[in-house]
Amino acid sequence: MGEAELGALIVEFGDRLVDRKSNDYRALSDWLKNSEAEAQIAAQPKVMARPVIQDGDTFYLGWDETVQNAVLEGR
Predict the structure, then answer these.
(1) Can you give the pTM of this predicted structure?
(2) Which residues, other chains included, contact 1 with Cβ-Cβ below 8 Å and sequence gap of 6+?
(3) Is 19:25 a contact under the CB 8 Å cutoff?
């Protein structure tokens, strides 16, 4: 993923883009934990929440029932 793509996702989701429940996040230094989401993902890409789905101009984060309904309703 390029800087422009990551930047667009940060604008869309902000801090929600970081999976704070993951072991990879817990392993980050305190300094990184207190930094911006972009710095956390750049340092350890595995902390990025997944999946990120793009449907046209709309982005979705995760795969809960709301996202499933939104993505699959037109298919």
Answers:
(1) 0.85
(2) 45
(3) yes
